[in-house]
Amino acid sequence: STIEASNFQVARKTRFIIHGFIDKGEENWVVDMCK
């Protein structure tokens, strides 16, 4: 897959949330930050 085939929008701000080694992307604080 490529970025062209994704729903990525270059006009919007992009931020990367790094959850660390032990946590997962489903942790509450990660989900809250993505809202």
From TrEMBL:
Keywords: Secreted. InterPro entries: AB_hydrolase_fold, Lipase, TAG_lipase. It comes from the Eukaryota. One of its GO terms (cellular component) is extracellular region. It is found in: Secreted. Residues 1-35 form the Lipase domain. Gene3D superfamilies: alpha/beta hydrolase. Pfam families: Lipase (PF00151). One of its GO terms (molecular function) is lipase activity. Belongs to the AB hydrolase superfamily. Lipase family. This is Pancreatic lipase related protein 1. It comes from Mus musculus (Mouse). The gene is Pnliprp1.
